[in-house]
Amino acid sequence: MLFRSWSDEHFKLLERSFKLLGQLGNRTCYIPLICDTNQGNDESMVRWIRQPDGSYKHDFTIMERYLDLVVKYQGRPDVVCFYVWDTYLEGGQSNGRGIGGIAKPVMADRKAHQGRGPIVSVLDETSGKVEKHALPMYRDAQSRALWGPVMKGVRRRLKERGLEEVMMLGIVTDQLPTREIVGLFKAICPGIPWVSQAHPNRTRLYDVP
Q1: How far is CA 32 from CA 29, 87, 195, 201, 209, in A?
Q2: What are the tens digits of pLDDT across the range 91-112?
Q3: Strands 47-50, 119-123: parallel, antiparallel or unpaired by DSSP?
Q4: Contacting residues for 138 by C-beta, under 8 A, at least 6 apart
Q5: What is the helix (H) or strand (E) element at residue 5, kind and residue range?
Q6: Residue 135 and residue 149: Cα distance in Å, rounded?
Q7: Quick check: pTM over 0.85?
Q8: Are 58 and 47 in contact (CB under 8 A)?
Q9: 3-state DSSP call for residue 34?
Q10: Bridge-based pairing state of the strands 194-196 and 167-172
């Protein structure tokens, strides 16, 4: 059966999955704010909507609906991790090692993306079409103005659900986002720790827990 991502049909299947996750005692939740992650997230859960003046507004509907399912079936999670960095971005583009036959295509893909920033889902409100769009690199001077409203909106919605204290950013792997990226999110979303899923047992990312 084929259906559109985040459609009612999709959410019906997600609800079945969350029922099972709740029975298993799962206490974590991951919200991709960027596309094309290593975990297979093709789209970002927050949609960017381009305005006539070149600015953006944002649609948090999918993220909110997803979070509500998490809370309904899992209870209050211990971690809600917002996926804002992956190895195709600054800090990871040229350092990764593929495995066996995938090494060359992986590295070629990362090199092809160099000079471009995080990829997000852009919604055309008129047609309903969703396309991928690469924003400026995080180190670009525009990034604070671009990402500030997104993180403010995310944090407010978590606070409304009593989840602000379990908000985290991620995901750090064996590779690290640059100090500039960590500093950007520290400035626009202060007090929020990062999630690390890596071989090294890190307790701090530069000066952030």
Answers
A1: 10, 14, 13, 24, 20
A2: 986 554 555 555 677 777 777 8
A3: parallel
A4: 89, 90, 117, 118, 177, 178, 180, 181, 184
A5: none
A6: 15
A7: yes
A8: yes
A9: coil
A10: parallel
